[in-house]
Amino acid sequence: MYAVEGLEIRYGKGLAFAASELHIREGECVALLGPNGSGKTTLLKALNGLLRPSAGRLLFRGSPAALSSELRQRSVYLHQMPYILAGTVSYNVCFGSKSRSVARDVAERRAAEAMALLGLSGFERRRHRALSGGEAQRVALARALASGADVLLLDEPTASADSASRDLILGGLERMVREGATIVFSTHDQAIASALAGRVLTLERGEITEDRSTSR
Amino acid sequence: MREAFRLLFGGDAETWGIVTRSLGFSLFSTIFSTLPGIAVGMALASRDFPGRRALAAVVNALTALPTVVIGLLVYSLISRSGPFGSLGFLYVPAGVVAGQSVLAFPIVASLTYAGLSKLDPRFAETLVTLGAGPYARMLATLREAKVVLVAAIVSAFGRVTGEVGVCMMLGGNIRFSTRTMTTAIALDAGKGEFERAISLGLVLLIIALAVNLALHAMTPREA
Fold first, then answer.
1. Which residue in A has a C-alpha nearest to residue B123's C-alpha?
2. Which of A33, A56, A96, B131 is a plausible cystine mate for A6, CB 3.0–4.6 Å?
3. Which residues of chain B make contact with A45, given a CB cutoff of 8 A?
4. What pLDDT score was predicted for residue A36?
5. Distance between CA atoms of residues A118 and A177, nearest Å
6. pTM over 0.90
7. Does residue B56 contact residue B76 with C-beta atoms inside 8 Å?
8. Mean pLDDT of A129-149
């Protein structure tokens, strides 16, 4: 699904991430481990096409990721501190479906399913300002799931979640893995990486230093 | 002072005619400047194109231009020998509205630009990653920044309501036609007839207070 060749991503002159070769298969769940500043967020954003390669190639199903309309339709990147749009939870969760021109009944069904999965039933009319950090993270994930994306690029999806929110988020992700979604997520938690991902990439100073499979 | 209050609260037709005419001019010029002002402000904030910084600097500089200079500029365009002289806008309400629209436009554009530039960078990324096209992004941005946009419009309305240079130069302060609160104040004070000037000054004061209270109420409070 993803193929990386001689990739370099720079912010100005500073090299943020480099990889000579990397492949991610459809339906794979990949965890990115590494200290702050190791390039995890840069890689996730590049996989979503939000960052363009400074050198080399990052292909999604054969097309440059930054230009791929299929990638734009199929993938969602989730910030570590998600941005919740001004409005209700319902507006947020339905936003991706609306902007991808999904039929209204399908969008509403998807939104209801995603909200139920993440313990957000009854939150429909709650305003964005009234959400806690963990609730905002769940709303953002519900928004991603309801958009119909099957390529999820998640930057520390449990970072600001309490234990209850964390369990709900991990439950939702496990289900997505079972359903065959392609998931790449960053985390500092080895246990979450091993429990969820079939493959773990360790990053240090903008490079992949280890690429291993887990027992999952 | 008593006479000023009598003119205001006794329902003096000419005084209230001036007030409603002034507000009408301001309202129409604000309406006409809103769409292009917001469009230019959004383009400056969201698109990177050659000359963007220079254009932003020009728009910002135009907000500080004295109203008589704007009056002079528009006068040269709509006077009989000007390129738009055939429209017959000089010394009629349409000319005042045109001039005030030119005055209001950079205010709306620069405040929109400034407000949108402060939006969280994650906002734009969130829209893109959720597959929003240009139209959906524009609608979402208008919704996200509605407080900023309304504040820009209210500021422009306040500015044109209180200006005198454009009204005087393009309207000519013609009684029952282009006389506004500010030009009436200038005329009456010049003649030493302060009653109507004071009554209209009170109205302008109330409008200025209302505009500032509205802007204050719209400013998001820190959590």
1. A83
2. A56
3. 125
4. 92
5. 15
6. no
7. no
8. 91
